[in-house]
Structure formats: C-alpha cells, structure tokens
C-alpha cells in the first residue's frame, strides 16, 4: 500500500512532466526476479532487439553480456530510502516510449505507472490486489496471466498478442560468453557428462541427498560423469551428499569454479542436465541440453523447460509453488515432493541412456 501513497505524491509531478515528454524511441523491460526468470524473458529481448531493463543484480553477469540490453537499472540500488525510490521514478518518468512490465510486484508497478510512455503493457496475474488498480489504470494494455499459461508466452504477448512460445528461442547470454580456457574437467570425453544442481535458490525446492544417491545407483551401469554446479555457498550441500554416497571418482565438483557468465558455456558442454526448478535448468534448456526436471511442488503448466525434457513429479500432489506465488515452505516433505520410486528411476535411466553420445557408443 505504501507505493500507492508514493505514486499519489508524485502524480502532480508526473502530469507536469508529461507535458514536457519528447519521443525517445526507447523501450524499458521490467523484470526483477532471478536467473530462471531472466532466461525466460530472453525471447522478448530478442524480439525487441534493443531495450533498457530494470533488473535484479543477481542476473547482472548474464544481463551485462546480452547485447540486446543497452542500459541496466538495478532495483537493489534504489531500495533503501524513499529518496532513492523517487530518484529512480523521476529518472524513468520521461525516458521511454514503451514500457513492458513482466514482474508486477508493488515496487515494479509503481515504477511502470510513473512512466509517461505512450505504450505501456503490463502483466496481471493471480496475485493482483484491488488497490493495484490505480497502477493498472495507467497501462495501455494488460496481458492476463494464469497458472495454466506459460510465462514465456505471456511475456511475449506483451509485445504482440499473436506470439507463442515458438516465436523466439531462449538464450542465456547473447552472444554466448565464452571463457578461455575452460576447466579441463569440462573437456573430458570419457563419460556421459551429466550436470546437476543439488540446490535451488528457494531452499524448499532442494532435492534431498538420499534421492540423489538412489539416482546415482540406478545410473551406475552407465558411464556417467556427474558435474555438480552451484554457487560457493552450496558447498555444504555437496559435503552432505558425499557423506551419504562416499567420495566417488565420477562426481566432479564445479561449485564456485565458474563466474555466472561462464555457466551457460559450461552447461552447454553437458550431455544431460538434472535438477529441480532452478536457474540452471533454464540455462540448460536455452543451451539445448536435454533436461530431467524433478519439479516437486512447482507448476509445470506455468513454467518449465521447453526443449528435450523429461518431467518427473510427485504422485497425487497438486502444485503449490507458482512463478508469482512461491511459499517459503510446503505442506509436504521434500521426500514426498522429490522422491523417486522405481518407475521414475527407470524413466530417468531410459531417458539418459537413449541420449548416450556417439563417442561412447560401442555398436557392432
């Protein structure tokens, strides 16, 4: 509600500034969520060719290596004081002709509403509140998004209502940022390279170590090399897993070994990627790497990898985690949400074995 009050305070300034507004031809995209969400807006960025963006600093290494984005505003730079919030609102106010609002929380609605752009297109979702109507009244168009619609498609429809998920591909960086040289482990050819995220940004989406152990055992007769990706603070998760599995020569620790901008290239070197709903899953999808998504409580109707993917979910448990409504905890245990019975283990085995790279096949 505070942002409604802030908007009313700035409304007289907005009206006066509108009289001074001159066309700039510039476009602003507003999406302040994390890595997976950033990857899912890249089809829109490709369509726009050039734009500015209001983003979270967590995606900076990807966004700063995307040549579709000309200028980036980081929301974290304007969160602390009211003066900072007003400063950003005033800087955005007359700068753009078009504004696309993809992540409609109160702060982003406030900034989008303050803009005097002649074309403002907003996403409205299932968390929309009655008091936000004042912000939505400033929009020229609204795309209604539900949990049964793909976010990537809703984002694209902001620009053109005829667009679908197939209109533009995803990317992680554009052009692909390449680290030279890559760590030697990533260049190995003696096994099937399987990337893994053992943790997720939302810790409630973390797959238990016992589930990974069961999966490793089911895949034991395949020549698998398991590459564990993650930020430095995820090392404890790997330590916990290794206590259960014991040290294994085919588990390769990539945690903290790469800057985020190099992760797409590294994941692109994988033959398959396995994870829960995490940013790296969407990077793998953008890199056209086959994905096993163990989705737990997440709603795959709303957001999922769109390429070569095997979806593994819980039995008889309705989704409770959505793109715009993610609880910090869930009714069911992680074992119930992410557990793999024999059928699911077999499905994963057959998916992976069918994608055994040619270099490892020994056909007669």
As residue ranges, the low-confidence spans are: none
The total beta strand count reads: 12
* CATH homologous superfamily placement of the largest domain: Glycogen Phosphorylase B
CATH topology term of the largest domain: Rossmann fold
CATH class descriptor of the largest domain: Alpha Beta
C-alpha end-to-end distance: 70 Å
> What shape does the CA trace take?
elongated
Strand fraction equals 15-25%
Spell out the helices and strands N to C: HEHEHEHEHEHEHEHEHEHEHEEHH
Instruction: Please give the largest β-sheet.
Output: 6 strands, parallel
User: What is the annotated CATH architecture of the largest domain?
Assistant: 3-Layer(aba) Sandwich
Gyration radius from CA atoms, angstroms: 22 Å
Number of helices in the DSSP assignment? 13
Helix content: 25-40%
Mean pLDDT: 96
